[in-house]
Amino acid sequence: MEVIGVILSLVLLVTIAYRGFSVILFAPICALVAASLSSMDLLPGYTELFMGKAVVYIKSFFPIFLLGAVFGKVMEETGMAASIAKKVLKVIGKEKAIAAVAIACMILTYGGVSMFVCVFAIYPFASAMFREANIPKRLIPACMVMGVFTLTMDCAPGAPQIQNIIPTVYLGTTTYAAPKLGLICGIILVALSYIYIEWKRKLAAKAGEGYGNHTLNETIVDPDQELPPWYLAIIPLIIVLGLNFFFSVAYSWNPDLIEPFKNMGLPLVAKSVKSVISLWSLIIGLLAAIIIASVLGYKFIPKRTSLKMALNAGAIGSLLAIMNTASEVGYGNVIATLPGFTDIANVLMNVGANMPLLNAAIMVNVLAGITGSASGGMSIALEIFGNHWLEAVNAAGIPPEVLHRIVAMASGGLDSLPHNGGVITILAVCGLTHKESYKDIFAITVFKIVVAFFGVFLYMLTGIV
């Protein structure tokens, strides 16, 4: 009965999210449905377990969500994000519209711009280009997923996205963990995704299908809109990457910085400086980039808005983003404490029990699928199984950096089920439905799962790091 409760709860959450309801409201309800079928007391389950774990997640990662959202909003309102996107799409051309959209997404996300801002900034140009090239609009979401959910989310070394930050807190690694392994897997993933979407484009062209007659969120790009030059717009992105690298790799942090705070009896984010270096590095990088972007792009802000409004909107937007993820983390942690999940976990833990990397890839995928969140599922997995995996890889002589990369890549697999917040956002921005576009998004999800496991076996065969 307990296992049925877990499955029923997940199906309910997926269905509710698929229909566009907020996971902030319904994640605790779905969690308590499963809890009630396992005889857990509901009110303590909500206030102590669901909220307790959600708050821990917020405490650990809110600065990244806040600064990332503010940076993205400043890049959006100053026209810098649009300038970079426009330049990339112009250089590559409408003949390669699919590649152009994906590359523009990758440049922005690797530079620290959040997925949400990236989608809003690039969609107007993507829809105009697809319309001009007569490529079905329904393929735009898959192109964006290829751009924001693959190489620059969790594969590329130094990626400033939250999925590449979380493992550093639990494993004591940096965002540059296993760079060769990550790049190889990321490039393969992008190649597979591009081949698939191009294949779908050719099928559509052969069938006589064009852009289609759409009415929702159809945008017209104003060619006379004043945007900052692209070479100016890209400076803040370089600042993020440069400072993140310097403070993560080159700078020598004082290992005793946290000691005075330990004596205060505070619930610390991490037990040592090593575990928070990546967080601190990205905070410094994003803060500097916000200042630089504000200074360089101030005069390009339209009269309808202002820098103050951009900063405020970014701060408010960060609350929605982190509360969505924290609710999914709370949901996943309630599920993880139930006997039904314990039975499932015991079975999965025996799969590849002597292969910790394989076991980690399986467990993270499952939890990311349950929560519908890469960062949420990965956080839960590392919270519950992180020490076990770390001890196992150390005993096997496997660097923790490899575990970091495998866990990060695996988190982006089953997370992109229909209830994933990023998927819902992309479809909403594009004015499309799950029925129209999700099957192509799911194809890339399958590639992500396959490539994560490929990474495990590639390391086992070659030892590449």
Concise synopsis of the structure shown:
Helix content is 73%, strand content 0%.
Properties at a glance:
21 helices; 465 residues; globular; mainly alpha
Low-confidence stretches: none
Judged by helices, strands and strand pairing, the structural class is mainly alpha
Shape: globular
Estimated helix fraction: over 70%
Strand fraction equals under 5%
What's the total number of strands? Answer: 0
What gyration radius follows from the Cα positions, in whole Å? 22 Å
Straight-line distance between termini: 44 Å
Write down the domain tally: 1
Characterize the main sheet.
none
- The overall average pLDDT, rounded, is 87
Helix and strand pattern? HHHHHHHHHHHHHHHHHHHHH
What is the overall number of helices? 21
Describe this structure as you would to a colleague.
The protein is an all-alpha fold and 465 residues long. The protein has one domain. Helices cover 73% and strands 0% of the residues. The protein has 21 helices and no strands. It has helices at residues 2-18, 23-36, 42-77, 80-92, 97-110, 115-133, 140-148, 151-155, 162-171, 179-206, 230-233, 235-250, 259-262, 277-297, 307-337, 339-349, 356-371, 374-395, 400-411, 421-430, 434-462. Helix 2 (23-36) packs antiparallel against helix 3 (42-77), helix 4 packs antiparallel against helix 5 and helix 6 (115-133) packs parallel to helix 20 (421-430). The longest helix has 36 residues, at 42-77. It is globular and about 60 Å long. The relative contact order is 0.16. The model has no long low-confidence stretch (mean pLDDT 87).
